[in-house]
Amino acid sequence: MRSLTPLRLGKALSSIPLVFHGPSHARPEVEKSPIEDIVEANLDHYRLNKDHRHGMHSDFEASLLGAQEIQATAKDRLKAEIANAAPAVTAA
């Protein structure tokens, strides 16, 4: 394994400079991010929108299938009425 030595201006560093940045202080303790609540609200809006769109699709699909069944039934009735109302053709 190869080891690397950090350099600055060609000289080895005695330590690596590190600064902590937190939402309210510069200590290494972990805190809740201030944007976390906004992220959660955006995710809730996204989920609600997707649920709504999925529901709209399902409703439309059911309506479409129902309309196709009604149309097919109406065509069958019309054919039956035409068949019953048509005068019988006899060969001469």
SSE order and pairing:
Elements: E1 7-8, E2 11-12, H1 36-85
Antiparallel strand pairs: 1-2
How would you describe the overall organization of this protein?
- This protein has one helix at residues 36-85, and strands at residues 7-8, 11-12.
- A two-stranded antiparallel ribbon has the order 1-2.
- With 92 residues, it is mainly alpha-helical.
- The protein is 54% helix and 4% strand.
- The model has no long low-confidence stretch (mean pLDDT 80).
- It is rod-shaped and about 110 Å long.
- It has a domain at 36-83.
Q: Fraction of residues in helices?
A: 40-55%
Please compute the radius of gyration using only Cα atoms. 37 Å
Mean pLDDT: 80
Major sheet: arrangement of strands: 1-2
H/E order of the elements?
A: EEH
Distance between the termini: 107 Å
Number of DSSP-assigned strands: 2
Which segments are poorly predicted (pLDDT under 50) over 5 or more consecutive residues? none
Helical run tally: 1
Largest sheet: 2 strands, antiparallel
> What would the principal axes of the Cα set say about the shape?
rod-shaped
**Class by SSE composition:** mainly alpha
Taken as a percent bin, the fraction of beta residues is under 5%
